[in-house]
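Exam revision sheet. Question 4 asks you to relate a sequence to its structure. Input first:
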Amino acid sequence: MHTNFFTGISCKLMLVIGIVLVTNGKANSQDEQSIIDSLQLALKKVNQLPTSETNDTLKITILQGLVENIYEDNVWIKYNTSIKSLSERLLHSKNKKIKELAESAYALSLNDEGIYESNKGNNVLAKKLFFTSAEKLNKLNDHENFAMALNNIGYAYKADGDLVKALDFYLKSLKIREDINDESGIAMSLNNIGLVYDVQGNTKSAKDYYLRCSKILEKHGDKYQLSSTLNNLANIYSREGYFNKAIELYARSKILQKSIGDINGEAYTYVNMGTVYQSISNNNEAIAYYKKGLELFKSLKFNEGIAWGFINLGNIHLAVGKYKESKHFLDSATYYSNILNQPELIQRTEDSYYQLDSARGNFIGAFEHYKKYIFYRDSITNNESQKKNIKQQLNYEFEKKEAVLKEQQLKEKIITEEKSRKQRLIIFVVIIILVLVFFFTLFILRTLRVTQKQKTIIEKQKELVEEKQKEILDSIRYAKRIQDALLTPQTYIERNINRLRKNTGV
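Answer key, structure tokens:
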């Protein structure tokens, strides 16, 4: 049986407080150890400094870097506990900035504590911690990490077998991540939604979500998440009988996991590769891969992975007729499945027990195991759950399309209003120009009329002046004629003077 490789739980996200400790995805094991060594050295130095709020915030940053880069649960949880303790103390700070940073660090420490409890099978406590973390992150308006917490709540419900609630929280997380354009988070949500459909047997929808997820991860070069999604796709191809394609994807996934030191992912890949070889009846190769995966899970003390390893080993020994060995492995699988109390694991174990008892002729035992198998199977994949899931999906798609439509309508409204504004502006300018032209025309006409009047007046005055001038000239001529008539002519006087001179001898 295939296991669905899950890395969709958002964990150990790092804050930046005071200094920058950002890592891009998961580093390869050598680089990662170098980062861890540097952080541990920095922590040692900060621990030697006097206790102060500033030094405590610096210490939280370093601790968060260690939590982010260390995968062993029994190691990173100690650093996370220190973060929780320090941030609780700083919550009472009078410095507003430090207090806000402490609130965020505390909320994230609760989320990481929930992951630790989830890995240990304490799902009730894990869910409580995730809800508390989500509430605090929402109050802080930390949309990215709030979406992360919702995603983790979805995982907790999936582990409980409540796929309806799991899908609901996955979709809520996806919607926020799409709103803030968090592509890495979107990819994680798509992967997790695919897992829900995969568990229900809705292969088409699961594959669609995995493919959408892988495109985003390929674009961003996210090796950690991509390796898990390739595993999930390979699982589907294997079930569909495309074994070569499945092996190719598993091989790609394993290369990525080795390059980043992802032991947990590598263990799942070994188990999944074993199922492919079992499907093509290469049982020795299958058993070898199952055991490799199981040993890695044991080294990590990862109970869920250990349970899957035992289930697969139980099934293959059953297939080759080794009933005693099969029961031994299935008994171990039952132990870990009950510790985790995960319906999917219990369902698979009971199904294997039913087949084992049937093969051995223990039909009473087979019937009891079959009833349990049906009970847990129906609790996960009953028709009502599928209908609710479909309805949720339709509601989500409708809301998404409605949001897109509203956005388009808003854009169109803005464009229309802008066009209308421009038209109003143009009309206003045209009116202003026309008014100016009108008044200018009036001014010109008025000026012309005034000029015409002035011209008329001037012409009349000219005529009057000319008439007066004519009258004056006529008067002068008339007076001159009178004068000429009254006075002795000058020539006459001069002639008489000359005659007298002659007569007198002067």
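Marking note for examiners. The mean pLDDT is 83.
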